[in-house]
Amino acid sequence: MRRCSLTFSSPFVDTRIAALLAALFLVTPSPAPASELADQGQDLAQRLCASCHAIGRSERSPIPVAPAFRRIEPRMDLEQMVERLQDGLIAGHPDMPVFILKDDEARALVAYMKSLRDL
To answer: Which long-range contacts (CB under 8 A, 24 or more apart) does 35-41 make?
Structure first.
């Protein structure tokens, strides 16, 4: 039985592999850090949700029946919330508008909701 072993002893080959790996690393998009994503979600919550929901850690919702963001998680799994926001979040009452968010917007909004439980 013959075994084949590939070894690269040439520094030229090692340099080319290193250059290829570096190029792949540079062109691969990296996700936003969690805190940056949460900041984007907070901005989105302020624009879309704050007129009805309390979006912070302590205030009351302007509309009493609208749950505060910090209290949504016990009612709903936040992991499923991303998909629901992309599909069109529909509430059980007529005053809640239908929101259909892009993937990055939905992830940002949920990241913000998750950040509320962290402190």
So the answer is: 35/115, 37/107, 37/108, 37/111, 37/112, 38/108, 38/111, 38/112, 38/114, 38/115, 39/112, 40/104, 40/105, 40/108, 40/111, 40/112, 41/107, 41/108, 41/109, 41/110, 41/111, 41/112, 41/113, 41/115
pTM of the model: 0.66
Domain ranges of the chain: 34-118
State the fold for domain 34-118: Cytochrome Bc1 Complex; Chain D, domain 2 (1.10.760)
SS3 of 99, please?
A: strand
pLDDT in tens, 66-109: 989 998 887 888 888 888 888 887 665 677 888 789 999 999 99
CA distance 4 to 84: 53
